[in-house]
Protein backbone atom coordinates (compact mmCIF):
# COMPACT_ATOMS: atom_id res chain seq x y z
CA UNK A 1 0.00 0.00 0.00
CA UNK A 2 1.47 3.40 -0.93
CA UNK A 3 2.82 5.71 1.73
CA UNK A 4 0.76 8.91 1.65
CA UNK A 5 2.68 10.64 4.43
CA UNK A 6 3.13 14.39 3.67
CA UNK A 7 6.65 14.44 5.18
CA UNK A 8 9.81 12.43 4.57
CA UNK A 9 13.06 13.03 6.48
CA UNK A 10 11.79 16.47 7.46
CA UNK A 11 11.04 17.59 3.88
CA UNK A 12 7.55 18.68 2.80
CA UNK A 13 6.26 16.46 -0.01
CA UNK A 14 3.45 17.19 -2.47
CA UNK A 15 0.01 16.29 -1.17
CA UNK A 16 -1.20 12.95 -2.49
CA UNK A 17 -4.97 12.70 -2.82
CA UNK A 18 -6.50 10.01 -0.62
CA UNK A 19 -9.49 8.35 -2.26
CA UNK A 20 -12.25 7.54 0.23
CA UNK A 21 -14.92 4.88 -0.07
CA UNK A 22 -17.68 6.39 2.03
CA UNK A 23 -20.04 3.96 3.77
CA UNK A 24 -23.24 5.56 5.05
CA UNK A 25 -23.05 8.37 2.52
CA UNK A 26 -26.71 9.34 2.94
CA UNK A 27 -26.47 9.76 6.71
CA UNK A 28 -26.00 12.76 8.98
CA UNK A 29 -22.21 12.28 9.17
CA UNK A 30 -21.74 10.83 5.68
CA UNK A 31 -22.89 14.05 4.06
CA UNK A 32 -20.45 16.02 6.20
CA UNK A 33 -17.53 13.76 5.30
CA UNK A 34 -18.36 14.28 1.63
CA UNK A 35 -18.45 18.05 2.14
CA UNK A 36 -15.13 17.96 4.02
CA UNK A 37 -13.56 16.12 1.08
CA UNK A 38 -14.74 18.81 -1.30
CA UNK A 39 -13.31 21.50 0.99
CA UNK A 40 -9.93 19.75 1.41
CA UNK A 41 -8.25 21.36 -1.58
CA UNK A 42 -7.54 18.05 -3.29
CA UNK A 43 -6.18 16.28 -0.22
CA UNK A 44 -9.18 13.92 -0.17
CA UNK A 45 -11.74 12.77 -2.69
CA UNK A 46 -14.75 10.45 -2.68
CA UNK A 47 -13.86 7.56 -4.98
CA UNK A 48 -17.04 5.63 -4.24
CA UNK A 49 -19.94 5.91 -1.84
CA UNK A 50 -22.44 3.37 -0.60
CA UNK A 51 -25.54 3.46 1.56
CA UNK A 52 -28.79 1.57 2.00
CA UNK A 53 -29.59 1.96 -1.70
CA UNK A 54 -26.12 1.65 -3.25
CA UNK A 55 -23.35 -0.93 -2.91
CA UNK A 56 -19.65 -0.44 -3.59
CA UNK A 57 -18.40 -1.83 -6.90
CA UNK A 58 -15.24 -3.78 -7.60
CA UNK A 59 -15.19 -2.23 -11.05
CA UNK A 60 -15.45 1.31 -9.68
CA UNK A 61 -12.59 3.72 -8.97
CA UNK A 62 -9.79 2.37 -6.75
CA UNK A 63 -10.06 3.68 -3.19
CA UNK A 64 -7.41 3.82 -0.46
CA UNK A 65 -9.57 3.35 2.63
CA UNK A 66 -13.20 3.04 3.77
CA UNK A 67 -14.78 5.50 6.22
CA UNK A 68 -17.88 3.97 7.78
CA UNK A 69 -20.56 6.15 9.42
CA UNK A 70 -23.56 3.86 9.06
CA UNK A 71 -25.24 1.23 11.25
CA UNK A 72 -24.43 -2.17 12.65
CA UNK A 73 -25.67 -3.78 9.43
CA UNK A 74 -23.93 -1.15 7.32
CA UNK A 75 -20.65 -1.78 9.12
CA UNK A 76 -20.83 -5.50 8.34
CA UNK A 77 -21.33 -4.58 4.69
CA UNK A 78 -18.30 -2.26 4.89
CA UNK A 79 -16.25 -5.10 6.38
CA UNK A 80 -17.15 -7.32 3.43
CA UNK A 81 -16.24 -4.52 1.02
CA UNK A 82 -12.87 -3.92 2.70
CA UNK A 83 -12.12 -7.62 2.55
CA UNK A 84 -13.19 -7.83 -1.10
CA UNK A 85 -11.23 -4.76 -2.23
CA UNK A 86 -8.22 -5.29 0.02
CA UNK A 87 -8.28 -1.84 1.66
CA UNK A 88 -8.33 -0.47 5.20
CA UNK A 89 -11.46 0.31 7.21
CA UNK A 90 -12.12 3.16 9.64
CA UNK A 91 -15.27 2.32 11.63
CA UNK A 92 -16.89 5.40 13.17
CA UNK A 93 -20.26 3.71 13.74
CA UNK A 94 -21.19 3.23 17.39
CA UNK A 95 -23.30 0.66 19.28
CA UNK A 96 -21.85 -2.27 17.33
CA UNK A 97 -23.01 -5.81 18.06
CA UNK A 98 -20.70 -8.55 19.29
CA UNK A 99 -20.89 -10.37 15.96
CA UNK A 100 -19.90 -7.21 14.05
CA UNK A 101 -16.97 -6.66 16.39
CA UNK A 102 -15.84 -10.24 15.79
CA UNK A 103 -15.96 -9.64 12.02
CA UNK A 104 -13.86 -6.51 12.46
CA UNK A 105 -11.25 -8.46 14.41
CA UNK A 106 -11.15 -11.07 11.65
CA UNK A 107 -10.65 -8.40 8.99
CA UNK A 108 -7.66 -7.00 10.92
CA UNK A 109 -5.71 -10.13 9.99
CA UNK A 110 -5.54 -8.92 6.39
CA UNK A 111 -6.19 -5.15 6.47
CA UNK A 112 -5.54 -2.11 8.68
CA UNK A 113 -8.63 -1.47 10.80
CA UNK A 114 -9.57 1.15 13.38
CA UNK A 115 -12.70 1.58 15.49
CA UNK A 116 -13.11 5.27 16.33
CA UNK A 117 -16.40 6.10 18.08
CA UNK A 118 -15.21 9.71 18.23
CA UNK A 119 -12.81 11.18 15.66
CA UNK A 120 -12.15 14.46 17.49
CA UNK A 121 -8.56 15.35 18.38
CA UNK A 122 -9.90 17.08 21.48
CA UNK A 123 -11.65 13.92 22.68
CA UNK A 124 -8.47 11.91 22.06
CA UNK A 125 -6.61 14.30 24.35
CA UNK A 126 -9.47 14.21 26.87
CA UNK A 127 -9.16 10.43 27.17
CA UNK A 128 -5.47 10.79 28.03
CA UNK A 129 -6.19 13.46 30.64
CA UNK A 130 -9.01 11.40 32.15
CA UNK A 131 -6.83 8.30 32.37
CA UNK A 132 -4.06 10.20 34.15
CA UNK A 133 -6.48 11.99 36.47
CA UNK A 134 -8.10 8.66 37.40
CA UNK A 135 -4.67 7.23 38.20
CA UNK A 136 -3.88 10.14 40.52
CA UNK A 137 -7.29 10.66 42.14
CA UNK A 138 -8.92 7.22 42.22
CA UNK A 139 -8.45 6.71 45.97
CA UNK A 140 -9.93 10.07 46.91
CA UNK A 141 -12.55 10.85 44.25
CA UNK A 142 -15.97 9.76 43.13
CA UNK A 143 -15.86 9.75 39.33
CA UNK A 144 -18.83 10.50 37.07
CA UNK A 145 -19.28 10.86 33.32
CA UNK A 146 -22.06 13.15 32.09
CA UNK A 147 -22.70 13.09 28.35
CA UNK A 148 -25.24 15.08 26.33
CA UNK A 149 -26.44 14.60 22.75
CA UNK A 150 -29.36 15.47 20.48
CA UNK A 151 -32.66 13.63 20.82
CA UNK A 152 -32.14 11.57 17.63
CA UNK A 153 -29.02 9.82 18.91
CA UNK A 154 -29.95 6.18 19.35
CA UNK A 155 -27.22 4.75 21.57
CA UNK A 156 -27.04 5.61 25.24
CA UNK A 157 -24.53 5.98 26.72
CA UNK A 158 -22.53 7.20 23.75
CA UNK A 159 -19.55 5.34 22.35
CA UNK A 160 -17.36 8.20 23.50
CA UNK A 161 -18.68 7.93 27.06
CA UNK A 162 -17.87 4.22 27.01
CA UNK A 163 -14.33 4.95 25.80
CA UNK A 164 -13.89 7.51 28.59
CA UNK A 165 -15.08 4.89 31.08
CA UNK A 166 -12.46 2.50 29.69
CA UNK A 167 -9.79 5.19 30.13
CA UNK A 168 -10.89 5.68 33.74
CA UNK A 169 -10.77 1.93 34.31
CA UNK A 170 -7.25 1.78 32.90
CA UNK A 171 -6.14 4.67 35.08
CA UNK A 172 -7.53 3.45 38.39
CA UNK A 173 -7.13 -0.28 37.79
CA UNK A 174 -10.79 -1.26 38.01
CA UNK A 175 -13.87 -0.65 35.83
CA UNK A 176 -16.07 2.40 36.31
CA UNK A 177 -19.51 1.43 37.55
CA UNK A 178 -22.17 1.87 34.85
CA UNK A 179 -24.31 3.77 37.35
CA UNK A 180 -21.69 6.56 37.24
CA UNK A 181 -22.37 7.23 33.53
CA UNK A 182 -25.22 9.69 33.00
CA UNK A 183 -26.73 10.31 29.54
CA UNK A 184 -28.89 13.25 28.49
CA UNK A 185 -30.76 13.41 25.16
CA UNK A 186 -32.10 16.89 24.51
CA UNK A 187 -32.70 19.29 21.67
CA UNK A 188 -30.01 19.52 19.01
CA UNK A 189 -26.91 19.20 21.21
CA UNK A 190 -24.03 18.13 18.97
CA UNK A 191 -22.11 16.45 21.77
CA UNK A 192 -20.73 17.21 25.21
CA UNK A 193 -18.72 14.92 27.49
CA UNK A 194 -17.85 15.85 31.06
CA UNK A 195 -15.82 13.80 33.52
CA UNK A 196 -16.14 14.94 37.12
CA UNK A 197 -13.81 13.93 39.94
CA UNK A 198 -15.46 14.85 43.24
CA UNK A 199 -13.21 14.95 46.31
CA UNK A 200 -13.80 16.14 49.86
CA UNK A 201 -14.18 19.91 49.64
CA UNK A 202 -13.19 20.21 45.96
CA UNK A 203 -13.76 18.83 42.50
CA UNK A 204 -11.93 18.55 39.19
CA UNK A 205 -13.91 18.63 35.94
CA UNK A 206 -12.64 17.81 32.45
CA UNK A 207 -14.99 18.66 29.59
CA UNK A 208 -15.18 18.56 25.81
CA UNK A 209 -17.88 20.35 23.80
CA UNK A 210 -18.40 19.73 20.11
CA UNK A 211 -19.71 22.87 18.43
CA UNK A 212 -20.20 21.39 14.96
CA UNK A 213 -20.34 17.91 13.44
CA UNK A 214 -17.87 19.09 10.82
CA UNK A 215 -15.03 18.56 13.31
CA UNK A 216 -15.80 14.82 13.34
CA UNK A 217 -15.74 14.72 9.54
CA UNK A 218 -12.35 16.46 9.40
CA UNK A 219 -11.01 14.17 12.12
CA UNK A 220 -12.22 11.08 10.27
CA UNK A 221 -10.36 12.17 7.14
CA UNK A 222 -7.11 12.66 9.04
CA UNK A 223 -7.45 9.25 10.70
CA UNK A 224 -8.25 7.68 7.33
CA UNK A 225 -5.11 9.19 5.77
CA UNK A 226 -3.01 7.75 8.60
CA UNK A 227 -4.73 4.35 8.51
CA UNK A 228 -4.21 3.99 4.76
CA UNK A 229 -0.45 3.80 5.35
CA UNK A 230 -0.56 1.18 8.12
CA UNK A 231 0.11 -2.52 7.87
CA UNK A 232 -2.75 -4.99 8.57
CA UNK A 233 -3.84 -5.08 12.18
CA UNK A 234 -6.16 -3.51 14.74
CA UNK A 235 -5.16 0.12 15.27
CA UNK A 236 -6.49 2.67 17.75
CA UNK A 237 -6.85 6.42 17.94
CA UNK A 238 -4.25 6.25 20.71
CA UNK A 239 -1.74 4.79 18.22
CA UNK A 240 -2.36 7.78 15.96
CA UNK A 241 -2.07 10.19 18.91
CA UNK A 242 1.21 8.58 20.04
CA UNK A 243 2.70 9.19 16.59
CA UNK A 244 1.38 12.75 16.56
CA UNK A 245 2.98 13.44 19.95
CA UNK A 246 6.29 11.95 18.79
CA UNK A 247 6.34 14.29 15.79
CA UNK A 248 5.87 17.44 17.88
CA UNK A 249 8.49 16.59 20.50
What does this protein structure show overall?
There is one protein chain. This protein has 249 residues and is of the alpha/beta class. The chain folds into 2 domains: 7-115 and 214-248, 3-Layer(aba) Sandwich (Rossmann fold); 121-210, Dihydrodipicolinate Reductase, domain 2 (2-Layer Sandwich). 37% of the residues lie in helices and 25% in strands. The chain is built from 7 helices and 12 strands. The strands form 3 sheets. Strands 4-3-5-6-7-12 form a 6-stranded parallel sheet, with helices on both faces. A 4-stranded mixed sheet has the order 9-8-10-11, with helices on one face. A two-stranded antiparallel ribbon has the order 1-2. Helix 1 packs across helix 6 (214-227) and helix 4 runs parallel beside helix 5. The radius of gyration is 19 Å and the shape is globular. The two termini are 28 Å apart.
By helix and strand content, what is the structural category?
Answer: alpha/beta
CATH class of the largest domain: Alpha Beta
CATH architectural label of the largest domain: 3-Layer(aba) Sandwich
* Unreliable segments of 5+ consecutive residues: 1-13
In terms of DSSP E residues, the strand content is: 25-35%
Major sheet characteristics: 6 strands, parallel
- Count of strand segments: 12
Fraction in helix: 25-40%
* CATH topology term of the largest domain: Rossmann fold
What is the global morphology?
globular
What is the domain total for the residues? 2
End-to-end Cα distance: 28 Å
- Strands side by side in the biggest sheet: 4-3-5-6-7-12
Order of helices and strands: EEEHEEHEHEHEHEEEHEH
Mean pLDDT score: 91
Amino acid sequence: MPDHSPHYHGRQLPIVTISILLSGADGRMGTRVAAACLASGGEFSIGQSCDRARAASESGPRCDVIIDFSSDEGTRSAIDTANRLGIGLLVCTTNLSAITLSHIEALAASAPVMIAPNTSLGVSVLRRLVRDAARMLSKEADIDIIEQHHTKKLDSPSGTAKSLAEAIGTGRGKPLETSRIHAIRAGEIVGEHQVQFTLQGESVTLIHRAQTRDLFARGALQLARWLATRRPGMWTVDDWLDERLALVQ
